[in-house]
């Protein structure tokens, strides 16, 4: 784990080369501001469209694309209030197939608009967005298959990291907008679509799959399935697993994201904060993931003598906090919100960031509710970080199979073919 910290320190210390025209940050970019009267537009309507301002990169090198566009799309927050989200569409450089589209949800894992994927994946973006840039390797693999890819800023303009309904609705509305972008992008309106996301991206993808039957039923004709890796279904469990560890910064950013959507939540956090930790309290909605990992390295939010919250773990039992956290945990809602599309889950047994126990609960709830096709590949030898890479080929193979009309699992629960691969 120390190697991860050394890598981040090296990257932040590395010089920025001159001559690069830097992309405008979302907080200063007028494109992210919807036009007057946008509130009357339908969810999924395209409000504005432009060519992506800068070259796209995968950490250090350009990503080969035929073209790329950014769309500002009408969406809404958790309460039905109108907002607008940006999605970035990538066209394959070779043999683009306008009838196939993948919605790829990046693990932004931040509560600051200037960490949004639409900005992060452009050359010259702040080095603190490097986590999002690494996922361009997986996106490049999709482009090599000839698939168009849409990458939504699913956290929305308030950067509501870990807020499930906002994220899922944004994914679905970005798909709607992408399917209606054909005059500019060439994508067919009846294109087949698969969703894919890992970690924070799995939260958004999972909520999108679960909300789709009621929220966007017309997409049933397009959606072929969803691949969910490092599947986040219970943010309390992640807090318990990462408090005082190298990944404690995820707690800070998730609390910041929830506070951005729920002012009452933020107020409770501020009132309970340790006055000696005021600097850390004030950065919950400031930092991109890489910065947060460094700033909150081994920080204790709920335990220890210098914990950030005076109430410790008792804070999570506050009725308002408990209600908000559970409303945004898919494990608590998975008996009622059940996907009607095939789902492939892949997860490491020794995941120390997203404990697998809650993934298994969600799996069982969906099975009990009668989901038609659900596959669960449990990797007994990998944790959260390594499964990002190790599990990707299985996800890509599954996605290719969906587009090639390969049959999905249709057996009944709780069939388990072996220790590491489950179906229902």
From TrEMBL:
Keyword 4Fe-4S found: no
InterPro entries, A to Z: AB_hydrolase_fold, Lipase_secreted
Reactions catalysed: a triacylglycerol + H2O = a diacylglycerol + a fatty acid + H(+)
Transmembrane portions of the chain: none
Signal peptide: 1-18
Keywords linked to the UniProt accession: Disulfide bond, Glycoprotein, Lipid degradation, Lipid metabolism, Secreted, Signal
Enzyme Commission number: 3.1.1.3
Enzyme class at the top of the EC tree: hydrolase
GO-annotated molecular function: triacylglycerol lipase activity
Entry annotated with the keyword Isomerase: no
Gene3D superfamilies per UniProt: 1.10.260.130, alpha/beta hydrolase (3.40.50.1820)
One example of a Gene Ontology biological process annotation: lipid catabolic process
Coiled coil: none
Family: Belongs to the AB hydrolase superfamily. Lipase family.
Protein's recorded name: Lipase
